[in-house]
Design goal:
The structure holds three protein chains of three kinds.
Chain A lengths: L1 H13 L9 E6 L3 H15 L2 E6 L4 H8 L7 E4 L2 H9 L3 E2 L4 H6 L11 E14 L23 E2 L6 H14 L1 H14 L8 H10 L4 E5 H9 L4 H5 L1 E4 L10 E9 L5 H12 L1 H11 L2 E2 L8 H5 L10 H4 L3 H10 L5
Parallel strand pairs in A: 1-2, 1-3, 6-7
Antiparallel strand pairs in A: 3-9, 4-9, 5-7, 5-8, 5-9, 5-10
Chain B lengths: L6 E12 L2 E12 L3 E6 L5 H9 L6 E6 L2 E4 L12 E4 L11 H6 L6 H14 L15 H14 L4 E5 L7 H17 L3 E6 L2 H7 L2 E6 L2 E6 L1 H6 L4 H7 L2 E8 L4 E4 L3 E4 L11 E7 L3 E5 L5 E8 L4 E7 L2 E7 L10 E6 L5 E4 L2
Parallel strand pairs in B: 3-8, 3-9, 6-7, 7-8
Antiparallel strand pairs in B: 1-2, 1-4, 4-5, 9-10, 11-12, 11-14, 12-13, 14-20, 15-19, 16-17, 16-19, 17-18
Chain C lengths: L6 H24 L5 H9 L2 H32 E2 L3 H7 L8 H12 L4 H10 L16 H27 L2 H8 L4 H12 L1 H17 L2 H5 L5 H11 L3 H26 L15 E2 L2 H32 L1 H4 L3 H33 L6 H6 L8 H25 L13 H25 L3 H9 L4 H12 L1 H17 L2 H6 L7 H9 L8 H23 L3
Parallel strand pairs in C: 1-2
Classes of the chains: A alpha/beta, B alpha+beta, C mainly alpha.
């Protein structure tokens, strides 16, 4: 008994724990490993710099804030604009002066004060059943709340950052009262309680549960690449909303350097790499997003969806209505 | 040797509280070398607490406990139980179930393994359990387990052994032999002992001296015979043997008047004042009955108890119980007269 | 002069337990922040719905768990039927299944497009449209409660079975001879006697249900945990999140107090020493008993595992990654370390209460159990707050002495994870170890001490060997919990570190469990092996 306990402890304390060394860059990532791992592998291959990553969907900002100036993190990757702004506003980031970044990323996709940089953009699109929805090409977000789609709409939780951002943009355009009315009608039109993710809604259309749903544009391409999900995507058409008026809502994924980044130079190298032609090409081909770097084209699949008009309202304006969007969702009990 | 008997253990003014509850209050007792003291008392009287305090398993709030000249417990310092050299025997034997008999006995012996096993084996012989070395406790009977527990306790060569109701789980027919054996071992090995029980038969058979406890105090100490004849409390009187309670009035130092039995004579002066109203305790065997058609008592029940009959009588609506020799022929329904056999009267205050 | 005074044990217990409650204290301090506006907003909008949903969820989970666990426990403890020996441990198996995995599997199975509905449609030639025939909806509070109960009932089963065994059959038989039917006897004698045990089991289950996020989120059931996340992530108010968590903690403590008070002065613990004869069931009864146990095991374990295996085979090419070996090793190592430490601490706490009669000796044991009731993510934030605060001060202090600051030597490392696991699951180990100690007669302690052994020697030579099974059970339960634990692992893990649970969850949250089926099977297997081992030690003599 005693001996086995002892040997157990020997094993415990001899167990190797991964060490973080000097030739490293450390990332806290909201984005998922499927996408980030292949790109960082390329980066390590080219530069010899080790990339250490913590993936989390929640709490990265809190962790960064609590760790303060001793935080090991150099870079934060986010999958949406809200979280990018959140860490910037909490003072967790630093300005990055880099000619390469300025060159690679158009000015509307980076912070005036150089705290954050977008890496990709994507539109919040409407997926509509190919069989059941006629002349879908002219749909607007506003139409989802119309009589026509009663009991025919599917969405994920209203509180998901992608939806929050869309609702915030609605408030920016129409004001709170009108947006609330829209949300209420949208809620009435729902075929089922908000649940699942963007792909799940497309699946629901395929199954006949509903006819239209909201989703990010890249999911269409990703589903086409997946054997099991291709039939779902085949059942719907992708529609860029509001083409005749303000344009489709877009969101970005982005990057920022932490305020106390211990490996500043490596972090800078990584940022430059992620905005470079090579990495941007990977974003385009792996995740079907729109690269921000103007010399990189979207993937063939994405291009086949055609050009679209994007909402020109700056995201920095949209993000100011985020809190209001949250409150509206509670008020109309959107998820309940 | 000293002309005064050597004192093995003394407890002076010991008080123990559990929270606000005073379990022991200013209790004192002495155990002489090679003496077996019995703590007798009803459950809740604090007997076991005395043992725990002596063994060092409880903190105390007042008083001291010493072995010989050395103070082992006081309010400030309590010598750890494992440093006292006091053995203890429990009602549930407390043998370690995961150890063999031999391992149990060797547990406390601080000697190299081989020597320890040798001593353990000789102890096994002493308690008449030779050959059971490899058995596990659950394979033994209650009496056998208690023998092993004794051997284990003796293995540390204690100066004092504490026994907490050690025989109450042992079969009745094995109990006498076990008590005799253990008593002999303790005497032979010159071990003083405190023995706790609520059973007077065990106390009579096992102990040299009795101390009766009531409400956290020792009310009387003495030989079994003395306590039987001259109990100083009603509870003690009842504990030492069954009897009848009578309301009486003192006539003089030797004579007492009972409404039921008339005048009763005491063989010794009882020390109560003339005219005082008292309660008198008369044991079943201190009364005799004889068939008498003019008698005032009537037999309403008779039960055979192995050695004689217990007869229940009524006199003036009062119920009395009397021992009746087997030879005497009296049956239920008979009218009898009652006589009080000569004895030192046991009287208590109040009615 | 040495003393028997257990002061050393008492102080050590207190110090250790203070470390364990530091995260809760951190949260408590955090909850003092002002957030009236947010609460007014929540109160006016969704809070009542969340509270109702939470109460409904917890109640349903407790109800389902009771329905699953009590009859099985009673059958196994009191009756004799075919395969009883095997069922005794088979019924524990669902414990190894993470709730979010089983939730995913059953949704996939019972959805409109799942195999069950598809085959029903083909059998009845029904129209393919949705809503044209009735089929129960699984993605709601009932479904979520059912899923949680299916994997949580073993807690109650384990505790109730032990309690029934200790009652023995004689009380039940006495009740029968007094003219009560078997059912009445069960209701009036067996069940009330087992009440304290049932309450303990239900607390564990209730705490798990209350703190669950992954499953209810997947089923789109908004509970108070949703409010915690909303407040923290959406409204940016950690203090409101902490407040809601504290409120949840307080309400559970309140319920417990009510139960204690209502139970009153009744005494329940009565050990039956008499050997028990089990009821021999007749053929029909036996068949029913077997069917009942089999149904539970099928639903909670065999069916989900078979589906996982099916996924794993179909998606083996994507599902099998070499990195899984390392993830498996890391998870097992992490869970084992946490389980062993938790158990050692539990022994310390319980042994202290055994050595010292003072009421204060019970405090470490009790307060270290609170953190089990707080949602895991919130607790992880508590760990993060307290740990980084400590590290920052140490760094600052070293810098002021002119040394190089060591950085985040705790929170950035695996230590943070182990600490969080220990804090979270201390209650589980405490419960098991406490009841193991109760089974050892106090006179054994006294005998050992009067035979010249110290408290430590007594612990190692008497208690530990006698509690082998209890120690193993405690390690096992905490180990399984750690293998499944998700939110704390997500928030506190070091760089490049995955546990099987985080690995699986990243696929589940992407609705792609198929790709992580191999990893999910590994979680289950890692819990399965010790469960089987436990039942083997249970059979050895003693």
């Amino acid at each position: 008994m005693k001996n086995s306990l002892l040997s157990l402890f020997v094993v415990i304390f001899l167990f190797p724990i991964a060490n973080v060394s000097a030739q490293d860059v450390n990332i806290y990532s909201y984005r998922q490993p499927f996408l980030i791992d292949p790109i960082t592998a390329k980066f390590t291959e080219e530069t010899g710099i080790n990339v250490n990553i913590i993936y989390a969907k929640k709490g990265i900002a809190e962790r960064l804030k609590r760790e303060g100036k001793y935080s090991p993190a150099d870079i934060v990757l986010t999958s949406d604009f809200n979280r990018l702004i959140e860490i910037t506003e909490k003072g967790l980031t630093q300005a990055v002066e880099s000619e390469i970044l300025i060159q690679n990323i158009p000015s509307q996709y980076r912070d005036d004060k150089s705290h954050w940089f977008a890496l990709t953009t994507r539109a919040r699109v409407i997926y509509a059943s190919k069989d059941r929805i006629k002349n879908a090409e002219a749909l607007d977000y506003e139409d989802l709340a119309s009589e026509r789609f009663k009991g025919k709409v599917c969405v994920r939780s209203g509180k998901h950052p992608y939806n929050i951002s869309l609702i915030a943009s609605m408030i920016a355009h129409y004001g709170e009262a009108e947006t609330k009315a829209w949300l209420l009608k949208l809620k009435e039109n729902l075929a089922r309680k908000p649940q699942g993710n963007d792909r799940g809604q497309v699946k629901a259309i395929k199954e006949g549960i509903c006819d239209v749903s909201l989703g990010n544009s890249y999911y269409y391409g990703k589903m086409l690449m997946d054997d099991a999900q291709k039939p779902w995507a085949d059942a719907v058409s992708i529609i860029f909303p509001n083409q005749k008026n303000r344009g489709a809502h877009i969101n970005i994924s982005g990057i920022a350097m932490t305020k106390y980044a211990p490996n500043k130079e490596n972090a800078l190298a990584l940022m430059a790499f992620l905005s470079s032609e090579k990495a941007q090409g990977l974003y385009a081909s792996l995740n079907m997003e729109y690269p921000v770097n103007p010399i990189v084209e979207p993937s063939e699949t994405v291009k086949s969806w055609g050009e679209f008009k994007a909402d020109s309202l700056p995201l920095t304006t949209v993000v100011q209505y985020q809190a209001a969007a949250y409150k509206l969702l509670d008020e109309v009990k959107f998820d309940l | 040797m000293n002309e005064f008997p050597e004192i093995a253990l003394s407890v002076d003014e010991l008080s123990v509280f559990y929270g606000d509850n005073k379990v022991l209050e200013q209790l004192s007792l002495k155990v002489l070398a090679n003496e077996i003291l019995c703590l007798l008392g009803q459950s809740g009287s604090g007997k076991t607490t005395v043992l725990k305090a002596v063994a060092g398993l409880l903190p105390l709030q007042y008083g001291t406990i010493s072995i010989g000249e050395e103070i082992i417990s006081s309010v400030d310092t309590v010598l750890a139980a494992d440093k006292r050299g006091i053995g203890i025997i429990f009602q549930d034997y407390a043998l370690f179930p995961h150890m063999t008999v031999l391992e149990n006995i060797c547990y406390g012996i601080k000697e190299p393994k081989q020597q320890a096993e040798l001593s353990a084996k000789s102890l096994l012989e002493l308690v008449k359990m030779a050959g059971y070395d490899g058995s596990y406790p659950h394979e033994l009977s209650g009496g056998q387990q208690q023998r092993i527990a004794i051997a284990r306790a003796l293995a540390i060569e204690p100066k004092i052994l504490l026994l907490d109701e050690p025989f109450s789980n042992v079969d009745h027919n094995l109990r006498q032999q076990l008590m005799a054996d253990i008593r002999q071992i303790l005497k032979a090995r010159n071990v003083a002992a405190i023995f706790v029980t609520h059973n007077k038969a065990e106390a009579f058979a096992f102990a040299d001296k009795l101390a009766f406890m009531e409400g956290g105090k020792i009310v009387q100490t003495g030989t079994a015979e003395f306590l039987y004849l001259h109990p100083c409390s009603a509870a003690l009187a009842e504990s030492m043997g069954q009897g009848n309670w009578l309301d009486v009035q003192v006539l003089d130092q030797r004579r007492i008047m009972s409404n039921i039995l008339g005048e009763i004579l005491s063989t010794k002066q009882h020390g109560f004042e003339k005219g005082q109203k008292c309660r008198q305790f008369i044991r079943f065997n201190q009364l005799a009955i004889s068939g008498d058609d003019t008698g005032s008592a009537k037999v309403i029940d008779s039960v055979f108890n192995g050695e004689n009959y217990l007869c229940t009588l009524t006199i003036n609506k009062t119920i009395l119980v009397v021992n009746l020799a087997l030879a005497q022929k009296i049956s239920v329904g008979d009218t009898v007269s009652v006589t009080v056999l000569p004895h030192a009267a046991i009287l208590f205050d109040g009615q | 002069m040495q003393t028997t005074n257990p002061r050393a044990w008492l102080s050590l217990s207190w110090i250790v337990s203070l470390f364990l409650v530091v995260p809760i204290i951190a949260l408590l301090l955090q909850s003092f922040g002002s957030d009236t506006d947010l609460f007014v907003h929540l109160w006016n909008t969704v809070l009542t719905d969340y509270v109702i949903n939470t109460v409904q969820l917890v109640f349903l989970v407790l109800l389902f768990s009771t329905i699953f666990a009590l009859p099985s426990a009673w059958l196994i403890a009191m009756c004799d039927f075919k395969w009883r020996q095997q069922f005794q441990w088979l019924l524990m198996l669902p414990l190894a299944m993470p709730a979010y995995v089983i939730a995913y599997i059953y949704t996939d199975l019972l959805d409109f497009s799942g195999p069950v509905q598809r085959s029903l449609r083909s059998v009845f030639q029904a129209n393919t449209a949705m809503g044209e025939y009735w089929f129960f909806e699984i993605r709601n509070v009932y479904g979520a409660a059912l899923m949680l109960a299916l994997v949580l009932y073993p807690y109650l089963y384990l505790i109730a079975r032990t309690s029934f065994l200790e009652q023995g059959a004689s009380l039940f038989q006495v009740s029968r001879t007094l003219g009560l039917s078997p059912w009445q006897s069960f209701k009036k004698v067996s069940l009330p006697l087992c009440r304290p045990a049932i309450v303990v089991g239900l607390i564990f289950i209730g705490a798990e249900a209350l703190g669950d996020f992954a499953t209810v989120h997947y089923f789109a059931v908004n509970t108070l945990t949703t409010a915690v996340y909303d407040s923290w992530l959406g409204h940016g108010s950690l203090s409101a999140a902490a407040k809601i968590s504290m409120f949840m903690l307080l309400s559970v403590v309140g319920l417990l107090a009510i139960e204690r008070w209502q139970r009153g002065r009744q005494r329940f613990y009565q050990k039956s020493t008499a050997k028990m004869t089990k009821f021999k069931l007749n053929k029909r009864q036996s068949l029913a008993a077997v069917a009942w146990c089999l149904m539970l095991i099928m639903a909670g374990f065999i069916v989900p595992v078979m589906i996982l295996v099916d996924y794993a085979i179909n998606y083996f090419a994507v599902g099998w990654q070499d990195v899984l070996w390392q993830v498996l090793l890391q998870s097992v190592w992490l869970a084992l370390v946490a389980a062993v430490i938790t158990t050692i601490i539990a022994v310390l706490f319980v042994y202290t209460t055994r050595l010292s009669a003072r009421p204060s000796a019970h405090v470490p044991l009790k307060i270290s159990m609170m953190s089990y009731i707080i949602p895991s993510t919130v607790l992880a934030i508590g760990v993060l707050i307290s740990m980084t605060l400590f590290e920052t001060s140490v760094n600052e202090w070293l810098v002021s002495l002119g040394y190089q600051p060591p950085g985040l030597f705790l929170s950035g490392t695996i230590f943070a994870l182990i600490f969080a696991f220990v804090v979270r699951f201390q209650a589980v180990a405490n419960g098991v170890i406490e009841s193991s100690f109760l089974n050892i007669s106090p006179s054994l302690d006294m005998a050992s001490k009067t035979l010249g052994k110290s408290n430590v020697q007594t612990l190692f030579s008497i208690h530990m060997p006698l509690m082998k099974k209890g120690l193993f059970t405690a390690v096992l339960l905490v180990f399984i919990e750690c293998m499944k634990e998700l939110p704390a692992a997500l928030l506190l893990r070091p760089f490049n570190f995955d546990t099987l649970a985080t690995y699986v969850y990243q696929f589940v949250s992407d609705e792609h469990l198929e790709h992580a089926a191999v990893a999910a099977i590994l979680i289950v297997l890692a819990g399965l092996i010790p469960v089987i081992r436990l039942t083997q030690t249970g059979k050895s003599p003693q």
